[in-house]
Design a protein that fits this description.
The protein is α+β, with helices and mostly antiparallel strands. The protein contains 55 helices and 33 strands. Strand 7 and strand 8 form a beta hairpin.
């Protein structure tokens, strides 16, 4: 834990005021203000001081690499490879070597990797025995460049300069830390002591408060804080021996503090600590300069002449390399441990005991050997062992523990120490060997032989070859190592330490700093490291030689032998870490789960849909008044087998008195009736195996009945009842048996019967139309019996009715069936059907009228009575849902008799009947039976019989040329009614036929038509195209800008080098998402859009397409969201395998490089970071919103869509949080979001202000076909236009969801009205709420909440001279308002651009929307200027030239002519049967209105209908004539 606030305040106070015993300037921990002229000199983070110009490849920062300099590994092998075991020439002890490394920790901290991460990787030659024994040639040891000053390395004038991460003074920072906070974390704040672990002899194990380096143990792979002590230097635990040196100084401080506390009991903790620290630092300085350095270099140190303020003591890069490499050559492969009485201890190893601790297995050791037993005696044994052991010779040879087994970087556990330092020298931009010698006054190298005369000639030749025999290219590091006397390294090291001493204001010998008296200075000078060890170990002073850095003859405890690698355990070989090991499966599962989110959401949505459908069905059943019939107890229960691939269903069998066997379902509905009248013998086949449960009742002229009983007894009971029933009916029963499998194979199933009937119809039409028999089709049957059945197939009444698409008991089927069934056996044979079909397919009008006459001449007296005529009419009316009452039918009959002059007759002969139909020969000529089996080719031929516009005077060339587009010719004749309606005056536009059919514009080839179609498409959708292109360009622009920025232009963080593809995809898509998710809000600003569409902006922006644009933007944003996710998946994988040293550069606010190199696992990124968690939640929300917003689920559960789409609030909150963490970049979402959010908020507030006002319902009316008519108060200042829509909510339903509906009232009316069809749960419940029963309980009409009005494309109707309104189903609602508005404006002589409106009403039956008929009737009565032409298409009827429809058509035209109104609707509007022929309809408009260049087409209804209208417009727009601009709305 960090210091408490109280402790911090106490320390500050004691330092500043209360320490009367502290009379000197306390030296700062961070090195600042040592030099009062240059305050940062020697401080933490100060730059290294170049003694010579930087030697970079580009003169700025790029390090020299192959081939300009030799391969580092090859050079290491050439320079440093050799035998170990040679003792130091000056008998320098190993203690002096590790003391030197400790001194370097005090003044030098250059191990911190630089940011962004840059690498000078070491390529290992193929076949290297240590690193590439397999000879792959692919091994590359990573080497990361060290930290540099960010402001350097920008130009040759300011080349890269590295920084020192500790103080550059000999100030004990390796003991107390390089900062005040670090020092405080090391202190116990009791008795001036440094905090210690149990026993007081060792420091505390690290707990994270101090940023100690925690590299992995290369021999075991172990990491973590275990065995890592809190010391002044982060690298103090690098090996056991350096750790022991650090612990010695830790103990020495506490030793002095205890002595001071005893001598000065009144001193505070701070007094004692600062006195002890001052003395320890001074002692350390004295030992380094006057005991250790002369021993190491073998030279005398110049006399101290006082503090020199203008001397720059900064460390040089040359010293960094020279000191480290000079000491490295003296390290032995192992270190002895001994007791106080010269007992050299054995060290346990993997294969026995060994004389010493192996150096290569001691780096960052966490094992329970040596110090790890937490016994202070181990530190003592190591320190004593090092005092007796003589170091390796000061030469060029480095032991294999460093050269081959130095602890490795990143994922490699081992590396080459020498090669690494060679790369470090290149990283530092060191000068060449000769430049350095000249700088320090030494002679440059002229000949290779002068470099190292003590070496073998072949070694020198190898090194010379690596440098191409160019002595000028020899680098400082190898040159200095190869020197015989190490003269260059010695002079560099001596120069540095003298500058450190002379430029240090707090040097202990400086009498002007007031630190010590002359006596104290002398005492410090006389204190040696021998005295320090004697004070901190359990050894007696006599157990140590007086000069512990040298072992001389006669000194106590000589070493047993000079150690070599052969005496020691082997080094653990290199291991390569796989950071992703064990993560593949989990990572893959997460990706799969993320990919399956839409599927999971789909499943949830499906469950919601199932429940909603179930609830809706319950609601519908609740409202239904149908009562189920109960199955009588006399019925016999069984399961009916339908076929091998169809499930059996439960049925009930009833034996009727009139020789009819009925098959009922569980509700008592008749599924099938089997007549036994024509059967003399009933054949039954029983199964003889599998429990004897199956029964087959043969029905020769229908499909068979196969029953499965639960047990044989039930079957026997049924057979008994059947036998008795047949005996009563005088019928025989023949029973046989066969195996159940054969029985089911023998049975003719319903599916097989359908195939037989299909062949039946094909052969019928083949004979009637002389179609090739091969085109009629043949069926391959399994047995001759079934083939025979096909040839002798006869249709039952039910099958005949199904073929005509009618009910079996309708009057029309009765009449037609009785006429066709000549033999009266209750079935129609092939020949009988053929006879009647020939008449309708090829017969003359006279023959057809004769057939109809015979059909309804029930008493066959040769006369058709009025009653029989009425029966005929009613049989036709049956197929239109009985849309006429009996009175209307009688009225039609009387009028038709009267029009033909037969008003005085009660009966008609055939001649009279045919005379009544005299005006309709053309219709009768085309009349046929609408039968399901008719081939498509025939249907096409039948349709192409009558020209839409009859040109009586001339026949154009267009008609003569069969290759030209004949779309406008072969269509129905109703187009004539477009020109002139019976009983009405001719409209103001006269018909002008096109006679110049040979014009080139009609002779376009396919390519020209496509070009014209494209031109018209661009003309119609130019605003849409411009907006989409502009929006897409902006989206692509922000994507490219961010992608380019992070790839090439961003401040160098190294992230692009780490994950190039992932970062450009994720950042680019993030920018696009930010833009799209922000501006998609504008598409939902309904009030703003309604206002803007009335401005000039509507000429440039298609406001009516806001919803479509919303969907388009949403889908594009979804694609970019998936891209963003994919980019981050790549990033997460790369970050999961990227070492910590790189991650700490990329994410300095998240990661601290502690040397462990282990990155966070993939799940940390997904679930333990704010961006990761919010990202996953965003994906979940997006999946839910998008799935529930699909057309299907929106239709099934609008409430689900309503609720889930309101998650957009949470979506934006999470997006803001997601980006605010600034993991990679500073938040940018607000740049895009603020403006749209403010506009949307204002728009939403406007809607909310309206929504809070309750609107009283004035009138509620339940209309047929589930339509609810609501009339309610018009709020003040509620201005709207015809065709606009509103959103309403009804709190009485228990929900606040708003639903959109088009207003059916006109703007001039005082109230507002809606016609709402009950098609979903909400609308159904609304209808139930306003039902008389509900209102009787409530006592008043429930109020509504209103939001709107909102604009849409239909309100543009008045901007065209000619407009066509096409309404289908409930989609007619906007046109009700438009029609009323048009007529009103016309009646008050309002100036209108629109001169003519054609209203096409497409409905299954006019009964569905009788309310609209009332509106149209009002329009007709008020329309004095012939503005509106209404055409009603009733689609429930059969095809136009079917027999039934032909007769209805004749009756309708007669009624229209006589009474000037429709037989079906009572309107003067023209009623058509079948679907509207949009292409010829629109084509005729071009001729009716030739001067109009642009016709507006507005459609609203089912998607199928609007697509048909769109295709018709596109087809006609291919021609260079009138342009049809289509605006549509689906529901």
């Amino acid at each position: 834990m960090m210091l408490s606030l109280t402790e911090v305040l106490l320390v500050t106070w004691t330092l500043g005021r209360a320490q009367g015993s502290i009379s000197w300037e306390v030296q700062r921990y961070d090195g600042w203000y040592n030099n009062l002229l240059h305050h940062s000199c020697g401080s933490v983070g100060a730059r290294l001081l170049r003694l010579l110009p930087a030697n970079y490849a580009d003169g700025v920062y790029q390090a020299l690499q192959e081939p300009r300099v030799p391969n580092a590994r090859q050079l290491s092998n050439a320079v440093a490879r050799g035998p170990s075991g040679l003792p130091s020439r000056r008998n320098t002890t190993v203690l002096a070597v590790f003391f030197g490394f400790h001194v370097l920790l005090d003044i030098l901290g250059t191990e911190k990797p630089g940011c962004p991460a840059e690498f000078l990787n070491i390529r290992i030659p193929s076949g290297d025995p240590v690193f590439d024994p397999a000879g792959t040639g692919d091994v590359v040891l990573p080497f990361q460049r060290i930290h540099w000053a960010a402001e350097t390395g920008q130009s040759p004038n300011s080349p890269r300069e590295q920084t020192n991460e500790v103080t550059g003074w000999l100030d004990g920072s390796s003991i107390y830390g390089p900062s005040h906070s670090w020092s405080d974390a090391l202190r116990s704040f009791s008795g001036g002591q440094l905090a210690s672990g149990p026993g007081g002899r060792l420091p505390r194990e690290t707990d994270g408060r101090v940023p100690m380096w925690k590299a992995l143990d290369p021999s075991t792979g172990q990491g973590g804080p275990q065995g890592i002590y809190d010391l002044g230097s982060a690298w103090g635990n690098e090996n056991l021996f350096l750790q022991a040196e650090s612990i010695a100084w830790f103990r020495y401080h506490n030793y002095l503090a205890a002595a001071l506390a005893q001598a000065h009991p009144t001193w505070s903790d701070e007094d004692i600590f600062q006195h002890a620290r001052k003395r320890v630092i001074a002692t350390f300085q004295s030992i380094v300069l006057y005991e250790w350095l002369p021993t190491l270099l073998g030279t005398r140190i110049p006399e101290y002449k006082g503090y020199q303020q203008h001397l720059d003591p900064s460390l040089s890069p040359e010293f960094v390399v020279a000191a480290g490499q000079f000491l490295a050559t003296m390290l032995p492969p192992g270190i002895y441990k001994r007791g106080p009485k010269c007992q050299f201890q054995k060290v346990p190893g993997p294969s026995g005991s060994f004389p010493a601790v192996r150096l290569c297995n001691s780096y960052w050791s966490r094992q329970s050997t040596g110090l790890k037993q937490a016994e202070a005696v181990d530190v003592d044994n190591l320190l004593l062992g090092m005092t007796s052991q003589i170091a390796e010779q000061e030469d060029n040879i480095v032991v294999e523990d460093l050269q081959d087994y130095w602890y490795g970087p990143l994922k490699y556990s081992r590396t080459d120490y020498v090669a690494s330092w060679l790369q470090r020298g290149r990283d530092l931009g060191l000068p060449t060997y000769n430049q350095a010698r000249e700088r320090f006054g030494l002679d440059p190298l002229q000949n290779w032989s002068d470099l190292a005369p003590h070496l073998e000639q072949q070694v020198l030749e190898k090194i010379a070859a690596l440098y191409a025999n160019n002595t000028a290219g020899l680098e400082l590091l190898p040159g200095g190592m190869l020197e015989t006397d190490s003269s260059l390294f010695s002079v560099i090291i001596l120069d540095q330490f003298v500058r450190l001493r002379d430029g240090d204001r707090f040097w202990f010998e400086n009498t002007k700093n007031g630190l010590f008296t002359v006596e104290e200075t002398r005492e410090i000078r006389n204190t040696t490291f021998h005295d320090v060890l004697a004070a901190v170990t359990y050894a007696d002073p006599t157990d140590l030689q007086p000069h512990v850095f040298v072992w001389s003859e006669g000194d106590p405890c000589p070493q047993p032998q000079q150690l070599t690698a052969q005496h020691l355990p082997s080094c653990t070989p290199m291991m390569v870490l796989d950071y992703f090991e064990g993560s593949g499966a989990g990572f893959g599962i997460i990706i799969v789960v993320l990919c399956c989110l839409p599927l999971v959401t789909l499943f949830v949505a499906w469950i919601v849909a199932v429940f909603r459908k179930r609830d809706f069905k319950k609601l519908q059943k609740k409202q239904s008044t149908s009562v189920r019939r109960e199955v009588t107890g006399e019925a016999i229960h069984a399961m009916e087998w339908h076929g091998p691939k169809t499930d059996s269903s439960p049925v009930y069998i009833q034996l009727q008195a009139d020789k009819v066997l009925k098959v009922l379902d569980g509700r008592g509905s008749v599924l099938r009736s089997i007549s036994l009248k024509a059967h003399q013998r009933v054949e039954v086949i029983l199964s003889s195996n599998k429990g004897n449960k199956a029964l087959l009742l043969k029905s020769p002229k229908e499909y068979d009945l196969v029953l499965l009983f639960s047990e044989e007894a039930e079957r026997s009971s049924f057979i008994g009842k059947l036998r008795g029933y047949l005996e009563e009916s005088s019928l025989d029963l023949h029973i046989s048996e066969m195996k159940e499998q054969s029985l089911m194979k023998w049975a003719v199933t319903q599916e097989q019967r359908k195939q037989i009937l299909e062949t039946f119809f094909r052969h019928l039409f083949a004979q009637v139309l002389e179609i090739d028999r091969s085109n009629a089709g043949e069926l391959n049957f399994e047995s001759s019996q079934k083939a025979k059945e096909s040839l002798t197939c006869e249709l039952s009444r039910a099958e005949f009715a199904e073929a005509l698409g009618l009910k079996a008991h309708s009057m029309f089927v009765d009449s037609m069936f009785s006429l066709a069934d000549k033999d009266g056996n209750g079935y129609i044979s092939f020949r009988e059907f053929l006879d009647i079909l020939v008449v309708f397919m090829k017969g003359s009008p006279e023959e057809k009228s004769k057939v109809m006459f015979r059909m309804y001449d029930i008493d066959e007296n040769g006369f058709l009575s009025k009653e029989e005529f009425l029966r005929m009419l009613r049989s036709f009316i049956e197929i239109s849902n009985n849309c006429l009452s009996r009175d209307q039918a009688e009225q039609v009959t009387e009028s038709m008799f009267r029009a033909s002059g037969f008003q005085d007759r009660d009966e008609l002969t055939w001649e009279d009947f045919h005379y009544m139909l005299r005006d309709h020969d053309s219709e009768l000529r085309l009349t046929q039976l609408c039968i399901k089996g008719v081939p498509e080719v025939l249907k096409q031929n039948l349709h192409n019989r009558v020209s839409f516009i009859k040109k009586k005077e001339t026949i154009s060339e267009e008609e003569k040329d069969p290759n030209l587009d004949t779309t406008s010719h072969y269509v129905e004749r109703e187009g004539q009614e477009l020109r002139k309606r019976p009983g009405r005056k001719v409209n103001q536009y006269q018909l002008h036929l096109y006679t110049e059919a040979q014009r080139k514009k009609y002779q376009r080839n396919k390519v020209q038509q496509k070009i014209q179609e494209f031109k018209r498409f661009v003309e119609n959708y130019r605003r849409h195209i411009v907006c989409v292109v502009l929006f897409s360009a902006i989206t692509a622009g922000v994507f490219v800008e961010r992608a380019y920025y992070y790839a090439f232009a961003s401040p160098s963080t190294g992230i692009a080098q780490t994950t190039f593809v992932g970062i450009i995809i994720s950042r680019g898509s993030a920018a696009s998402i930010s833009f799209m998710y922000s501006y998609i809000l504008l598409t939902m600003c309904r009030n703003l859009i309604t206002v803007l569409r009335e401005t000039f902006l509507n000429h440039y922006i298609p406001f009516d397409a806001a919803v479509d644009f919303h969907r388009w933007v949403a889908m594009a944003a979804l694609i970019f969201s998936v891209l963003h996710t994919a980019g981050h998946i790549v990033n997460v994988y790369i970050f999961s395998v990227t070492p910590l040293s790189v991650l700490s550069c990329l994410f300095p606010s998240v990661f601290v490089n502690d040397g462990s190199q282990l990155p966070q696992k993939y799940y940390w990124w997904f679930f333990q970071t704010i961006p990761g968690m919010t990202g996953v939640l965003l994906l979940v929300i997006l999946a839910v919103m998008y799935v529930f917003a699909t057309h299907h689920f929106r239709h099934v559960s609008f409430q689900g869509f309503w609720i889930t789409h309101h998650l957009y609030v949470l979506l934006y909150v999470l997006v803001i949080i997601h980006g605010s963490y600034a993991l990679i970049q500073q938040p940018r979402f607000y740049i895009y979001f603020i403006i749209p959010a403010l506009i949307y908020s204002a728009d939403k507030l406007l809607s909310l202000s309206r929504k809070k006002v309750e609107i009283s319902v004035v009138k509620a009316e339940l209309l047929p076909s589930g339509v609810t008519h609501l009339q309610f108060q018009r709020p003040q200042d509620f201005d709207y236009k015809s065709g606009q829509w509103v959103r309403i909510a009804c709190v009485a339903l228990g929900t606040t969801e708003y639903h959109p509906f088009t207003l059916t009232s006109a703007p001039h009316e005082d109230t507002l009205s809606l016609h709402i069809r009950a098609v979903g749960p909400w609308t159904t419940r609304l209808r139930e709420l306003y039902s008389p029963e509900s209102l009787a309980l409530i006592g008043k009409l429930p109020k509504l909440y209103l939001d709107g009005p909102f604009g849409e494309g239909h309100q543009e109707w008045n901007k065209f001279e000619v407009s066509v309104l096409v309404g289908g189903g409930i989609g007619v609602t906007p046109f009700a308002s438009i029609l009323k508005d048009l007529v009103f404006k016309s009646s008050i002589s309002s100036k209108l651009l629109c001169k003519k409106i054609y209203f096409i009403w497409v409905t299954r039956t006019q009964r569905q929307f009788e309310w609209l008929a009332d509106i149209i009737r009002e329009v007709e009565e008020a329309d004095r200027n012939d503005l509106v032409s209404v055409h009603i298409y009733i689609t429930q009827l059969a095809e136009k030239f079917d027999l039934r429809t032909t007769m209805l058509y004749i009756c309708e035209r007669h009624f229209q002519k006589v009474l000037n109104k429709s037989l079906f609707t009572g309107l003067r509007s023209i009623t058509h049967f079948g679907r509207p022929p949009f292409v010829p309809f629109f084509d005729s408009l071009q001729e009716v209105h030739p001067e109009v260049q642009k016709i507006g087409v507005f459609s609203c209804g089912p998607p199928g209908m609007t697509k048909s209208v769109e295709k018709a417009c596109q087809q006609l727009n291919k021609k260079d004539q009138t342009y049809f601009a289509h605006h549509y709305e689906n529901f």
